[in-house]
């Protein structure tokens, strides 16, 4: 029997957040974390890598001082023994939080300030951060106007934040509520906040694509320009999969081009 080669690299990923990270669905009878599909996406893109992931979602948690989000993140990167050694770190930390804070009417600035403190912990431990914007919710009337205004303000601050090793994926734009067709909404949304199993798989697919793009970019940094050109010989070509309707969730793919990564 041929001896199996060890993986070229191990990628450790932490997905931390509230019930949307835990995969809450069906009033808590089902949990289906998006992390499962995300790992599949990374493994398909990098079969030579070993992917280790941790899902840390807590129902109802808040990023603000009333919640346990910051202490949980702190524990994830805390020293593990009496010798003062740190446990295994994470190459990537994916953060999704703030939905519950908005529901409790916390102001936008306080939510964003809390998120910065949360991001700072993995960043200070050499873990790259992929921050997700706060997704839409299916409120109506005055409640929708109030929460949408706060969410939009927080999301704009998230997208504008600049720091080394800090990246953003706009989950709010990627998986809308009101802009979906009725059929897509029925398939992917469980209630006005949470998703179905299919919806969490959709999150994992889209966030996974974003993470794969970032991993490709990191890998290309170590390659010479000549080798990059060999790896992307059809960079200016048009792929058949790019012709789908961008407004339909079941059509089209994200195509990563060398020129987009440089």
UniProtKB/TrEMBL annotation:
Gene3D superfamilies: SGNH hydrolase. Transmembrane segments: none annotated. The keyword Hydrolase applies. Keywords: Hydrolase. Pfam families: Lipase_GDSL_2. Residues 15-202 form the SGNH hydrolase-type esterase domain. Residues 225-250 are annotated as: Disordered. Residues 234-243 have a biased composition (Acidic residues). GO terms for molecular function: phosphatidylcholine lysophospholipase activity. This is SGNH hydrolase.
